[in-house]
Amino acid sequence: MYTPLQVNAPKREIFGWAMYDIANQAYTTIIISFVYSAFFVSTIVPADSVWRDSYWSLAIIGSTLLAMVLSPIVGQKIDQGMSKKRLLFVSTLICAVFTCGLFWVGPGDVWWGVAIILITNTAWMLGEAIMSAFLPELATKRNLGLVSGLGWGLGYLGGFVSMVMVSVLIIRADPISESALFISQHQWAMIAISVYFMVMAIPTFVLVKGQPRKPRARTTVTQPWWQSLNFRQQRLAQPLLFKFFAAFVFYMAGVQTVVKFIGIYSTGELGLSQADLVAVFLATQFSALFGAILFGVLERSWGAKPVLLVVIAVWIVAIAGMYSIHYLGTLLPFSTRDIFLVVALLAGTGIGSIQASSRSVVALLAAPERDGSAFGLWGTVNRVSMLFAASFGVVADLLSRQSALLLVIGFFILGGLLLVRVPLVLAPKVER
Length: 432
Known about the structure:
The chain is mainly α.
């Protein structure tokens, strides 16, 4: 297995690395999860269109397929000595610049919107994998979960700040009585998110080292890029890592479904207003921050596997509550909005921790000198989970959004069962 550093990196470098989570969280929060996804379906897509959620699914599927192919190629390049910092800067720049292009997307410009989301989401996903590949160079084996959880947890502060900036300071018009102004404010919000992303990422590029702290073995043979896509060969080289990936792809599909469709579900199915959505989001950001850091601390003594199993159980309870929300509304003296807030808070405690713990497991299981390839493959498997998640939109259109939640519960159950079969050490050893 890959052995991380015996001594933590300087705190300023860990801070710089964590700042990228704070920076890139704005894109996925505003564009993918909450604000622009709902705006796209309700305003950009024509009102008489039969297919609504499916357009958004198409953008997610297209970007996911591109990231699936590019992630292992980028990971291989990292193993062969290409600068992670340079690759991260390029992916960040592409995501930010093309996000600005959403400023010119108006009602009816469905395909322009799909194309821009395809490019920006691909760049964002590549950046996430590249940034994660720094982790083995920053933390000891014992502290992997804590450092990973700290980064993911602080990222939710970025989501909180960006949501306040967009939904409180920029998008203030009424969508019915001030429709033109409402559209214009959404367009200007895209410029604001792009600027925020680049500015908040500056500490990462200033403070994080560009080269590995541990010396690498010299690569004797430079493999062509297409060898990175030989997944059979990769599985033979890292069998335990791929056994973990088999579980990860399913439980992560459940998480990705919630992340990609929560805005569409809460407004379209439950009838929540934009103000309600902002309130739910702000509350869940703090529960996500708390959960990521709490489970990161627990991972030091429990180990990653028990933490992941507990968090999966929390997710199953939360999605079951969401599925039963109308029935619960008849039993409890609370509104649908209040019940949904409780369910969202419960899910929020696990949304960061499940990803942070998974990231630390990849660092622990990566074969020697294959951290770039391991995280590239992690990015690819993550994108496969997004393909499964995108099926929610199609199932929702064919059946109903409420019925499609059963699919999400199934993802978590299957992922948990497969994770039980992965022979991970229950508690990481303490270095001496």
